[in-house]
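Renewal narrative, Specific Aim 1. Our central claim is that a sequence can be written position by position from structural information alone. The example that follows is taken directly from our test logs and has not been curated for this report. It begins with the structure tokens describing the chain, in the order in which they were read.
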């Protein structure tokens, strides 16, 4: 709606996980390197954690886009209330396994045969389980057992667990210590720092075809930081709302006080932080 007014070809602050808009901060760069290294070197278990909105899904898609063409991937998204057997069913469905499969042993045998066939064809197989913090300990233990599918020299399948910080706490439970010990590569996503706000905003604006100085006036970055506390999703959410409101008022470039007003209207918690740290008045 505001794209033409600000000179964009497309929306710069959409919340969809488009890898083109991924700005590689230090934490994102390290995470991307960890994922691509772990998958291509067949390390087995990989772990990617981070708070909601830190960019885990976008980073994961960027990593998958860098993998060689001999890589097959499967993604499990529905993890709430999933039993160990249900998890195996979801995995089998993602890999397109067919036939009469009823017991845990049936699924494990079918998966092992499929993985051996792909290994003979020199293909690397990757299983991604998103929002893994929702899995019960029994289902997580089933994931560990999947790592037993291996040859004498290499893993048949690379397993990537992604989730919120609760996943780390869950994996620290004594009953899951065997799974925790098998994780070969891990990375915890951190929020952006104050000096990374402008590069983040600028990157997304440039990808969309705009110019930063024609969109935001100097001094808007502190408000974006204190509203979001460095969470990329919240930065984008505020930016989108600000640009829509600025378009309605035909305001360009957007001044700091306009961003401050919009941020205050979007949440009491963030507004309290703004007033405390920026000296704003209600």
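The sequence written for that structure reads:
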């Amino acid at each position: 709606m505001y794209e033409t007014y600000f000179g964009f070809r497309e929306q710069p602050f959409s919340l969809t996980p488009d890898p083109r808009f991924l700005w590689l901060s230090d934490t994102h760069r390290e995470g991307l390197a960890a994922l691509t290294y772990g998958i291509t070197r067949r390390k087995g278990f990989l772990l990617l954690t981070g708070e909601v909105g830190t960019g885990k899904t976008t980073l994961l898609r960027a990593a998958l886009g860098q993998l060689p063409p001999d890589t097959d991937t499967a993604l499990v998204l529905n993890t709430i209330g999933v039993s160990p057997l249900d998890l195996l069913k979801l995995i089998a469905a993602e890999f397109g396994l067919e036939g009469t499969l009823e017991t845990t042993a049936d699924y494990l045998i079918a998966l092992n045969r499929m993985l051996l066939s792909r290994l003979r064809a020199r293909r690397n197989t990757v299983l991604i389980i998103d929002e893994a913090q929702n899995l019960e300990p029994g289902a997580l233990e089933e994931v560990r057992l999947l790592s037993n599918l291996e040859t004498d020299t290499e893993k048949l399948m690379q397993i990537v667990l992604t989730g919120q910080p609760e996943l780390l706490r869950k994996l620290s439970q004594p009953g899951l210590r065997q799974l925790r010990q098998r994780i070969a590569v891990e990375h915890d996503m951190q929020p952006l720092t104050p000096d990374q706000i402008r590069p983040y905003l600028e990157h997304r604006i440039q990808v969309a075809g705009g110019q930063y100085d024609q969109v935001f006036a100097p001094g808007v970055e502190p408000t974006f930081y204190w509203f979001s506390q460095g969470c990329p999703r919240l930065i984008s959410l505020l930016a989108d709302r600000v640009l829509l409101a600025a378009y309605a008022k035909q305001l360009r470039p957007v001044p700091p006080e306009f961003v401050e007003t919009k941020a205050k209207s979007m949440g009491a918690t963030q507004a309290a932080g703004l007033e405390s740290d920026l000296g704003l008045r209600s």
